[in-house]
Amino acid sequence: MSFTRRKIMQGAVAAAILAASSLPAFAAEVGGIKFPDTVTVAGQELVLNGAGVRSKLVFKVYALGFYLKEKKTTVAEVLASGGPRRIRIMPMRDLTSDDFGMAFMKGLNDNVSADERTKLLPQTKAFGEMFAQFPGLKKGDELIVDWTPGVGSQATLNGKKVGEVLPDVAFFNAIMRIWIGDKPVDATLKPKMLVAPQ
């Protein structure tokens, strides 16, 4: 190989490496859906804590990922995690807003005490009203709920804000407990949310 050709090849390899380094690194692929190794929320980098697929009977419903400032392995540590947090939901089939909303609310109510339910009722109601703002979730949509300290919880659907900001961290924890609480909606998914796939 001539010197000129070698230099061209070296340049091409370097360019390919540089291009690859600018793309998001994917830490996990669950159900064919990729979850980036890191995301940025409120100007802070978060890492993928865990990801998995929510199944019901024989159907795959959605892929789910939790992002935290640093990886945690217990429910208590996840719920006490400081800084911003993110829940990312990627539907794997079309879902009506009624079906998804009712399942969401049932999972939330199943994992909070009666006292907590009373305290969180205004925010739970506001969050439930969010589902009335769109007809449903389509396969390939992206539903995100971010927690930002000092601001609150904000949901976005395909990058567009939906619903109002809900200020109480206890409510965001109640949402997380849908999947990692004492009565998770999918018992096989719970452990996957506590350890990032390798």
UniProtKB/TrEMBL annotation:
InterPro entries: Chalcone_isomerase, Chalcone_isomerase_3-sand, Chalcone_isomerase_sf, TAT_signal. The keyword Mitochondrion does not apply. The keyword Glycoprotein does not apply. One of its GO terms (molecular function) is intramolecular lyase activity. Keywords: Lipoprotein, Membrane, Signal, Transmembrane. Residues 27-194 form the Chalcone isomerase domain. It holds the Pfam family Chalcone_3. Residues 1-27 form the signal peptide. It comes from the Bacteria. This is Lipoprotein transmembrane. The lineage of its organism: Bacteria, Pseudomonadati, Pseudomonadota, Betaproteobacteria, Burkholderiales.
